Amino acid sequence: MNRRNSLKRIGKIVDELDLSSKGWIVFGSAPDPILPTSLTGHYARVDINNAGRTAQELGLGPADLTIRTKKKSWSEHPKLDTKALIWIHTIPAPMLRLLLLTKPHRSIGRVAKFTKAERDALVETVSGVRLENVGPWDKVSNGVAAACLGLHFGVPEIVLSGISLSKAGHSYNQLGRTRYQVDEDRAVLSALAKDPRLATSEPDLATDLGLRLVS
Fold it and tell me: How many Å apart are CA 159 and CA 147, to the nearest integer?
């Protein structure tokens, strides 16, 4: 499946769930996320990887959209509950549903495949940033990629929550794992910082990059 067909399938899901007409809260897994309570319930929540576990611990409902990568452990969030899943994977798209039968979850609605190459090409198109030699990973985090996806589909406002360039670890465990792709995320978010549609609920990210702060 080429990138155009992948985006067409993702765009169909966005249309079916009416996700492009409302704002998005892109909910990452940085520790101590600050959710904009004034927007919760009015904006679509887009969970990144296993951040949905934190959302459930906070008493929130199903995600409107989850974006997760192939390598993320399903045992860390065995009760995934989402209206749609964009799965960054390598297997043929028709096989995704069969593979999901082997994964622990509560409920998964629509499903679409996206490859790493497709994700990275989209980020470059939206941000204008070529990531070669920017940092050691040559790719952004899925949270930043989700923001680019929303901008691509014309989402009126995207609020980054639980996304950080400075905090190590994850909100749903105490392992304190190193945060990767910091240089790449910084480069892309810096390029997008002047877009009036992009904002954050995290004061440290707002101060660091000059993003508009919402609460």
Answer: 8
